[in-house]
Amino acid sequence: MSEENVNTGQAGDPTAEKDPSDWVTGDEPATGAQKSYLHTLARQAGEDVPDDITKADASKKIDELQEETGRGQ
Length: 73
Description:
With 73 residues, the chain is mostly helical. It has helices at 32-45, 55-69. It is globular, with a radius of gyration of 14 Å.
């Protein structure tokens, strides 16, 4: 394995990222931090998000809205 593909365990390490659909806790309610950030992004994008969103769906929606609002870079 090349050194560039080693999982560092650090946040943002693409080798450590897992598809939210594969998360064991993905069906649990979104965390407070996720909801707060999601609602901030949704306001900027002029969208609404449900309060009962799951962790996995919140993560996907955050990624989508970050791209849309330019806040993900």
